[in-house]
Amino acid sequence: HFEGDLTGKTIALLGWAFKANTNDSRESAAIYIALYLYKAGATLIIYDPKVSAEAMAKDIQAYWPSGLKAQVSTDRFTVVQDPKQALQKPVGGVGSCGEELGEPSA
């Protein structure tokens, strides 16, 4: 659709861990999906109720290519604490990476 260029598109990833109800994100598919989308220019908004922003940053340091790690910009990579926050901005797409989402809290 976009010929590999996602510049200007905001994509929400709902889930970072490799499976629901865990904070274990080692080798999670979300790490590599986020890498692909980020390299294509997308702005990412990520929600996972069990994985902290610090853990996600460690995953990026461990699994993303070294040249790209230093370029990760907080204006294109945001971790939010509520799934509603992830969906508030205009979104070009939403992906669920292993997380079973229940009803959002009011």
Please give a structural write-up:
The protein has 106 residues and is of the alpha/beta class. The protein has helices at 29-39, 53-63, 66-69, 83-86; strands at residues 10-14, 43-47, 77-80, 93-96. A 4-stranded parallel beta sheet has the order 3-2-1-4. The termini are far apart.
**SSE succession:** EHEHHEHE
Strand content: 15-25%
Shape: globular
For the CA atoms, what is the radius of gyration?
13 Å
Mean pLDDT: 83
Helix content: 25-40%
- Largest sheet, order of strands side by side? 3-2-1-4
Low-confidence stretches: 101-106
Keywords:
disordered C terminus, 106 residues, 4-stranded parallel β-sheet, 4 strands
Write a compact overview of the structure shown.
The protein is an alpha/beta fold and 106 residues long. Helices cover 28% and strands 17% of the residues.
SSE inventory with pairings:
Blueprint: E1 10-14, H1 29-39, E2 43-47, H2 53-63, H3 66-69, E3 77-80, H4 83-86, E4 93-96
